[in-house]
């Protein structure tokens, strides 16, 4: 159905692909032979996605979070995709705003800047002042974007259905990836979801034992005015973090300020990742602001990730394994993360990790790029056909963006010194919990219970061992074959003894036979012994185990 409904769009896609010089596609369409399906080069793929429009730019941004699907070159190129597009004229934006407001526009706002401060593929943002004098940011959905997205989603799902029939599509679960993308794109059309994410993030970061919560800011949502197509939130006055000018302070104060901000960012995101399990998944330079008040703000909570407690614990141990350059432990933890039932050759996986980590053996911990190692770990998993949860891509991308911003903003940052106390505290919390006294008391009670029950359990065990009611239930692999072999050996030995006894009995009777009856018995015994012996020899020869 989608093929007939989106024919013009299909023709446009083919023209864009050919215009960007994808040689494989050109050979395929002209009847040439292609060895195996291949992606265009990273730069060409990026150009294709940009030319295809906003939806495909979003697709590229999603793929940049999937190092389990694409190699490092594609991840790096697609990570640079920005959905900056020409703004929609104010007259069209005003129509959308008026439809979303319960009251007239003039009664709701004192002023609205008709020139947007930012324009993206889904929405654009304007600065405004409410009737009560508060400054706010208006994120307005682009007119007609929902219809465009619906058409492109139908086309992407149709293509995914076709690709899913190939080995490539099955190995990389292309259909699930397409469904994930379409759901994420549809969710972006509902600004109330982003508003909810923003509120949750602000609540989570409002308290911490790692940093001063007053130094991190997340915009407050105006729920009275926010709808599916209009997001109204607190205006935050500042500049992108990497554009922050600290030159008005003396050099020592500027260095101290940069160090403090870097430490704050690491601690804020480590809390999100390893404690809260809910994290801002797009901390690129444009979403990290340095406010005029000297604080740091997180903007745009449209892309978030979630980690369950088990995954958090595994990833914490993975960080420690990376620090220790422990290839075997990395392999074990990767398998624990895997949601694939396909068999894996563990020795091969360990060897791949060992080769990857070996280049870091003589490197200083301060020079190790942790996010790069995590990307390489995910790619090794992909090469070994280990399917990892999709949130691992968001996790890796978040760490990569955070590390990149930190190193650019503060080149003197010592990454190991920043994360070492956090990892130590994480392990302490996993061992003792949030309330160490309660955890210790619970452990003491468990030990007490074990100490009281152990003597009685040992007594019961000894009673059962010395009684006839004790049974061992063992399940050993290959034991059935061994048992059958032992049975065969025992049977043949029994027959051999029986044959020998018959021959000896017949010989004794024959030597002392005085009557014809005894001679008959002797002959019968000899005949029976001969038949049994012949059967035993034949069975041994047929088993092939004569030697």
UniProtKB/TrEMBL annotation:
KW Transmembrane helix (keyword) present: yes
Top-rank taxon, per record: Bacteria
InterPro entries attached to this UniProt entry: ABC1_dom, Kinase-like_dom_sf, UbiB_kinase
TM stretches of this protein: 493-514, 520-541
Coiled coil (UniProt feature): none
Family listed: Belongs to the protein kinase superfamily. ADCK protein kinase family.
Name by which UniProt lists this protein: AarF/ABC1/UbiB kinase family protein
UniProt GO MF annotations: kinase activity
Pfam family, one: ABC1
Keywords: Kinase, Membrane, Transferase, Transmembrane, Transmembrane helix
PANTHER family: CHAPERONE-ACTIVITY OF BC1 COMPLEX CABC1 -RELATED, PROTEIN ACTIVITY OF BC1 COMPLEX KINASE 7, CHLOROPLASTIC
Organism of origin: Anabaena lutea FACHB-196
Domain ABC1 atypical kinase-like as annotated: residue spans: 81-333
Transmembrane is among the record's keywords: yes
